[in-house]
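QA checklist item 7 of 12: single-chain prediction sanity check.
[x] sequence parsed
[x] length recorded as 279
[x] structure emitted
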Amino acid sequence: MTDEIITIGNSSIQHGKHSNRAYLMNLAPGDLPAVLPYLDDLARTEGYTKIFAKVPAKAKKDFMANSYLSEATIPGFYRGERDVCFMGKYFDAERSEERNPDLVQAALDAAQGKEPLLEVPPLAAPLHCRMALAEDAEAMAQLYRQVFATYPFPIHDPEYLQETMASHVDYFGIWNGDELIALASAEKDLAGENAEMTDFATDPAFRSRGLANYLLARLEQSAGRQGIRTAFTIARAYSYGMNITFAKSSYTYSGTLTHNTQISGKLESMNVWYKDLQA
């Protein structure tokens, strides 16, 4: 099941039953306020229980006046100059209330209690890391299928991986000899000088070896060379490992998106973390 991406005016919206939501991925300045009733109508017509919106901070008041909550903020998100707000509007009271607040807090406390890494340890042979290429797409999709039963985007499809690779996503992988064992990506907005660090997957046999931190460091280096200023992630709030990975890499926690994303069959809350790569 894959969500649909549509364009309304000049704004991009992803929606579908996968996460039972509409997601305003990009708000064009001229589409406010007309996009607000459109999103409401879309959610009600399709029976979605949440609208999730990533919008410039100057649009925050308009969304809050339309019953949105501000769930996270990243300063200097656009070209290091303008903040972004992650907004949520709920059409179901049960979805709006965190069902595992103690787990969210425990994972966050564990992450924020870690000391930042001074440097990422090198990989031990025969492990090696490089940017993934189009010919790696089948192995990449196979690893994603192994790690994630379902996912918000069709990363199980080699053609999707090749298409995004050719347009705006950098994938880095770690190989054990010829076997791909870990993978992550940076989804770049070069005009806005920001990138989402996402799609982390490690073969279960190779976990707890710091591979995610190594991949994150390589993604940051590559993104920084391309002029990316702000790196961010939307990490599973119930996952100690991913929150610790970003905290140890000196990311700052920004907020929690309640029951935001369906992963492996369940709606999960997500934590937003960010880092200035040019600091």
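[x] summary fact logged: Residues 211-225 form the longest helix (15 residues).
[ ] second reviewer sign-off
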